[in-house]
Amino acid sequence: MKRSFAFVAVVSAAVLVLGTATVYAKSDTGASSPVSRTLQVVTMPSSEVNVGTSWVGVMDVPLTGNQTYIVDANVRGGLTAVTPVCSFISARLVHVETGQVIQDSERLVTEICVTDSDDDPTNNPEPVKVSNNDTVPISVEIDVRGRKTIRLEAMRKDVKVFGPIQTSAIFSHSTGLTTIRYF
User: How is domain 39-182 classified at the CATH fold level?
Assistant: First the structure.
């Protein structure tokens, strides 16, 4: 049993290193057949995209052909604020040409919620700087007939903010990358 597990682990590692996977794709007739595709990885081009209280585009990925893509995004976000505060960042994938949100793609990236028991900022004489960083995955299947551009978007939602929001961003740097993988 250990031998077969080790074999599976070696094969899985080889797929990750080489970036090729065999998937079963459905044709227009509904039949499934194995198709070899190369895993594509797109890393967010800048080190930081500031996120405000409306949706902002973080990065785009063009998908072409007549096939179903498996799309995985890893989204790294961070918030820094002064208490009391309750704020969060969400991310989603959007079909650029139609403006439609890709079904089941919206995720909570990170959140800070530190408030007084009665949410009265005058009860907290010494505000404290707090921060939080998280990475969240988004995994979806996307049917493409022709060409689609998929955009990763992010937005901050302030539930209760009494102090300043100092950082509200999607990051991509040495301590965590924001990427979109697809095949």
Answer: Jelly Rolls (2.60.120)
